[in-house]
Amino acid sequence: MHTTHFVRAWKWLLAYLFIATSVGYFSTLILSGWGVAKPETILRATTAGIRHVGLPILTQGVSFGIDRGIMIFLCNVTVALLIIAVVYWTRLLNPYNHKKPFLKLRQHLQKDRSAERLRKLPAFAKISSSQLRLTSFLLLVSPFVATIMLGLMAGTLLGTVHKISASPMLAMAYILPHGIPEITALLLACSIPLATWLAIRPVIDNECPASAFRRIDRVVASKPFQQRIKMVVTLLLIAGIIEAHLTIKVVTLFSGG
Q1: How does pLDDT run across 5-26, given as a tens digit for each residue?
Q2: Alpha helices in the chain (DSSP H)
Q3: What are the residue ranges spanned by the domains of the chain?
Q4: Are 28 and 249 a contacting pair, CB within 8 Å?
Q5: Exposed/middle/buried for residue 164 (C-beta within 10 Å: 0-12, 13-18, 19+)
Q6: Residue 48 pLDDT > 70, yes or no?
Q7: Alpha carbon 78 to chain centroid distance?
């Protein structure tokens, strides 16, 4: 994975994250200000149940004596690794791989008819290989969907705290201490599949599926790919510890106790 691909992917996703966060933030203030919905209701709708799945897990872990920061880290790192797993998932779609591990699963995925439906989308219609078509879709679309969801959640949470506390500074104090490393890590995780798509894009245009899948294998085996996964995990560990042990102190400081 070339650094230029990764930087380009990062810039694209950062722009989408900023737009989604702004939409979530201002929509929360406007809708709650007009009395259409309470901020908490908007937050529940935006998080699509993720918060409500994570909170019982967090509470259960703490009841077992596990540090709250570690539980937050485990929840976040699960999400990040699921995003990165898209790259590994596309390797299972490689029709030129005849190795025995996961053979039945690969054969099943490669016969999946959902790839034919992608022919209706202009961006994927020209790709003749169904496996490469589905691979391109997963690598290109999944990071943008995850980034937009992340931005909407962050913006809505920021707007909710702002509306309830009537203080933008308190809202920032509630988000920024752990939000900076956490959002950076999740955006980094989203950039990995998109950068992989940028790496195979030239051979997609040249209708060379075998070369595209070879490039994916080289990306996964590369040192930068492994280093970025380690960076994601490290940042999320830092974010979890900050959220559990520092954020509340910063909020208390700004709220005057």
Answers
A1: 999 999 999 999 999 999 999 9
A2: 3-33, 39-47, 50-63, 68-91, 103-110, 114-117, 122-125, 130-165, 168-205, 209-221, 223-245, 247-255
A3: 3-255
A4: no
A5: middle
A6: no
A7: 10
